[in-house]
Structure formats: C-alpha cells, structure tokens
Amino acid sequence: MPRLSVWFIRASMLYLLLGLFCGALILIEKGLFIYAAIWNLFPLHVEFLLIGWLFQLAMGVAFWIVPRFGKGFSRGSEGVVWASFVLLNAGILIGALQFWFPVALLIGRISEVCGGILFVIGSWRRIKPQTKGK
Description:
Helix content: 55-70%
Low-confidence stretches: none
Structural class: mainly alpha
Number of domains: 1
Radius of gyration: 18 Å
Number of helices: 4
C-alpha cells in the first residue's frame, strides 16, 4: 500500500473515533438529559464521520486501487494528492472551530473542496478503460 494511502486511511480511522465519540456523547445526552449543550457537537459528529472518515477513506483506497501508469508502476505526481490530503484535513480541523469563529466553517469548506479538486486532478489521468488483452 502506498504511504499516501496509509496516511489517508489512518487519518480516516482517527476521524471515525472522533465522530463515534461525539455521537456517543449525543446519545448519552438524549437518554439522560445531563447537559443540553452537548447537542452542539452534532455538526462535528457529521463532519468527522462524513468528510473525515467516509470521504477520506474513499480517497485513500482510491489512490491505492486506481491503476498505476504502465512504465515503472508510477502513480504520477503524488505532490498534488499530498496537497489534497493536507487541504482536506486542514478544512476539517478549521471547520471544527465553527462554534468560536463562524467564518471558520466557510474557510474549512473551501479548503475541503480544494482538497477534493486536487485529488481529482492528481488521479484523473490514471482512470482509463481497460485495454484489450488484459
């Protein structure tokens, strides 16, 4: 497995744990009525599970699975995909600051979208139909 896929997948597992923790706190609050402000964690719960875990896991597996270029089994320029990893995770973490800085959500979303676009740019040329005889 390429190192970049390892980073994507391990980061996604951390976000899975964070998302499940937020969800568990919300469920505890729903049943026991301990502290109503816990419901403010719901946007983080969704962010961590959808973008942090699901989207990032898909990107890591896609980078690993999508065919490599024929000569030397290169995956092309990994720098663009590394930049997408950094932008995606920066966007998630910046977006988590939305309770204290409302503009952080917008900045985080822009960073996440840019990360997704860079991932597509870095992977686009590797997606091609299967040639005859293979």
